[in-house]
Amino acid sequence: MRPTAPTPLTSRRGLLFGTAAVGAGAFLAGCTSNEPKDEKTAAEDRPAADEPGKHVTIGFAGPQADHGWLNAINDNAKRRARTYSDVTLEITEGSNDTAAQIGQIETLINKKVDVLVVLPADGKALTQVGLKAMRAGIPVVNLDRVFNTPQAYRCWIGGDNYGMGLNAGHYIGEKLKDTPDARVVELAGLDNLELTKQRTKGFDDALKNYPNIRKVARQAADFTVESGQAKMAQLLQAQRKFDALWNHDDDQGVGALRAVEQAGRDGFLMVGGAGALSAFQAIERDDGVLKATVLYPPTMSASAIDLARALGRGKGVGGMAEYEIPASVTLYSAVVDKDNVERYMPTGFR
To answer: What does UniProt give as the signal peptide span (predicted)?
Structure first.
């Protein structure tokens, strides 16, 4: 579902953007010339973000869009590519079968696209095809789930799973810091994914700062509405009283909220993860237990297109002095609550 970032942290579905997705486009938008005339005219020599230049064909390969977040990844990439008259996007159907995705990427390599953007279904399993593209002279932008070696990509961009848990924990900690003997529960994602372990670790590390708070239960779901409902029902049955819930994923959170409603429970606050539109809307209404969600922005794929375009044109990134794009870009896991939800509403995914 979402990924493994470069060291030191891993990411889902690890420069930091101050406010996650909203800032990403602005940061990457202006591409700079590699040959500024001199110090006085260098800034003037940089073309505007939307100024057409050398045509770039970008191949985009991701897993099957069987989850709201993954569907948003595809949509954001397509929308961003359409804003550039000098970009052609070759996009594959996507597959969760590693052999099939490898075949799709090899087709893009054989088409001699200028740049590849790849969100691998399995970073380890697809490392060799990333290496194949790089050796063929096609730079790779590795999106979210990271390949096993930096030699398989020119740039990595993705989210921060540890940061999600850390920020969720601090948000809950600040809300409960004056509550004696506060109890929290955790509805995690798939436990066999490194990203789930990182989200839990970040959460646990944050709670160490609040000695009055104790995590009393943890249940793993699998990022679906159905699993969220079933596993949340089990948590509610086992824990008759708690003060906060950290739910790793807004899609499974839809099911978790159904279970809460069916059980007639309240008296606790819930923090979600990822940034679904339904979560934003519930936070804005402020009529239930869901009070915040921690971003894992799918707009990272739009920024990946920006990076790929810059690579294809031989440009750097606007706002930075270097003539080359960064080797890695880690998005910030901002907390969205009723105070700032209006700002992030346009980035919510269905």
So the answer is: none
Bridge partners of residue 246, in order along the sequence: 186, 271
Cβ-Cβ contacts under 8 Å for 143 (sequence gap 6 or more): 62, 73, 117, 118, 119, 156, 157, 158, 300, 301, 304
Tokens matching residue 180: 């004696």
- Residue 133 CA to residue 112 CA, distance in Å, equals 9
CA 326 to chain centre: 18
| CA gap 279, 298 in Å, rounded | 15
Q: What are phi and psi of 116, to 5 degrees?
A: -115, 135
The amino acid occupying position 182 is A
From first to last of its 350 residues, what are the pLDDT tens digits of the chain? Answer: 444 444 333 333 333 333 333 344 444 444 433 434 333 333 333 344 457 789 999 999 998 888 789 999 999 999 999 999 999 999 999 999 999 999 999 999 999 999 999 999 999 999 999 999 999 999 999 999 999 999 999 999 999 999 999 999 999 999 999 999 999 999 999 998 889 999 999 999 999 999 999 999 999 999 999 999 999 999 999 999 999 999 999 999 999 999 999 999 999 999 999 999 999 999 999 999 999 999 999 999 999 999 999 999 998 888 888 999 999 999 999 999 999 999 999 999 98
CA–CA dist 349, 275 (Å, integer): 7
Three-state SS string over 189-202 comes to CCCCCHHHHHHHHH
Cβ neighbourhood burial of 70 (10 Å; 0-12, 13-18, 19+): buried
Q: Provide the strand spans (E) within 7-130.
A: 56-61, 87-91, 115-118
Q: Which of 230, 231, 229, 280 is nearest to 255 (CA)?
A: 229
H/E element, 292: strand 290-295
- The token duo for 196 is 């789930």
- Which single residue is written with the structure tokens 């971003």? 295
Q: What b/e string do you get for 8-27 counting C-beta neighbours within 10 Å, with b at 16 or more? A: ebbbbbbeebebbbbbbbeb
Provide the 10 A C-beta neighbour count for residue 181: 8
Q: Which domains does the chain have, with CATH numbers?
A: 21-159+298-332 (3.40.50.2300), 161-295 (3.40.50.2300)
